[in-house]
Specification:
Four copies of one chain form a homotetramer.
Chain A: E1 9-15, H1 31-46, H2 51-56, E2 61-71, E3 80-90, E4 94-103, E5 108-120, H3 131-134
Antiparallel strand pairs in A: 1-3, 2-5, 3-4, 4-5
């Protein structure tokens, strides 16, 4: 990995909860966006910072502007999932992530997705990404 | 309605969402606590105030100290529920609510529950209920 | 709208729950997909059938294949939302819906979205939409 | 602990998700019941079986009859929690669990709770715990 782009990819492990299933017997479609969030927060740690601190100490929030998920095969209760997470775009005022959700046991691809985010202050108004985070996003 | 105890009881209508079901084919047990919250917020409106304003304008939060639910019969997707809500205790520093969840179509009792709440400021520290809300809670 | 295509549009009313907010003080992005589901189920009723019966009695499930939401302005606790819902595509094996989420008080557009669905049997395998539902979807 | 009662206690690790916070800036009270479920499922694994298999292969469901949580201090986004889980009662037709939620970083006790469960078949009717699971619950 080059010094300019640290940790631009990370894989989070998530276990499907009973609460996340629905009466079809599979994980409810909305929960994939929560899993993307969990994977994003872990990506930040792999990239060298805590998203919590970025919000709390530096007043920079990643406000979701758009989110998409394509579902290929269902995830089921107690499945262990691997959510590969990577930055697809990084600008001073927005960043975007891509995701691939696989079932660990079989390596089957269950879903892919993207989220794009505006950098905002605690007042929800757009701002630029603080200097210290730029290199983290490969800027 | 007497002037001393305005609207100490209210019934909220809630439709079970697909997202709220689990692979047993019934509503997941944790969701009843969300329904209690919805019913509590509607109780406030029936009692003459908005919980949103109580938090935002008067800095008084109802922080949950204890919550219980007893499940008698399952709620299912698309069932319409009636959640009867009533104050069971009101002190200057805490209030408690009781709930009865019935299936509207059959009037069957599905669940009962209670929540008790400390009055806290935005800093999550205990405080007393602001004067103007006391009568609303029958104090 | 032609006489052959009843109720191709419906607007559902949804009140933002406390549970649906996050620590940014706004509704969490994943919840919009639950609201789309609620709006879809109400669309079915406006179109003359219950989605519950379509699943239970006719063994036809609308399995989500893709979902997108674009967020323009945040929804907040206790906001009343109007979710306009309409069919954007209908084939014998798939249907797609579009959504517009507005804040009722101001008519401000908060979000737009789409979901596309494969018609599947209870075994999650693709099948065709039962005859009696075709006209409901304008087929 | 006697040799007849394997693994009657287990501690699950859970990281608080952003989705689980609310606008008070703390974890929403209903989510503790989801964490209890996650901890229960892990308890089963520590006790030598998968809850998934118990449902799927042996047709024995742990249907919640009652659930309680007492909240002592708030859990916050990204906190790592340790949920100690133990069987408090086991009969041929019902089992009960106790839980203690601590913040790992400080060992502070955040919450305690209980859930009691009826053993039911897939038809949601009471049945007895299958023989092979009795020893797991110390029966």
């Amino acid at each position: 990995m080059s010094t300019a782009t640290p940790a631009l990819e990370n894989t989070a492990r998530i276990r499907v909860r009973y609460a996340e299933t629905d009466q079809m017997g599979v994980a409810y479609y909305g929960n994939y966006f929560t899993w993307f969030e969990v994977a994003r927060v872990e990506w930040c740690k792999a990239a060298g910072f805590n998203y919590r601190d970025m919000e709390r100490e530096d007043g920079a929030l990643l406000v979701v502007a758009e989110a998409t998920c394509r579902y290929r095969a269902p995830a089921r209760f107690d499945d262990e999932l691997a959510v590969r997470t990577f930055v697809t775009k990084a600008r001073s005022r927005m960043v975007a992530f891509g995701y691939e959700v696989r079932k660990v046991e079989t390596d089957e691809l269950l879903a892919t997705g993207e989220t794009s985010h505006l950098i905002c202050g605690p007042d929800m108004k757009p701002r630029t990404l603080p200097e210290k985070y730029r290199v983290r996003f490969g800027l």
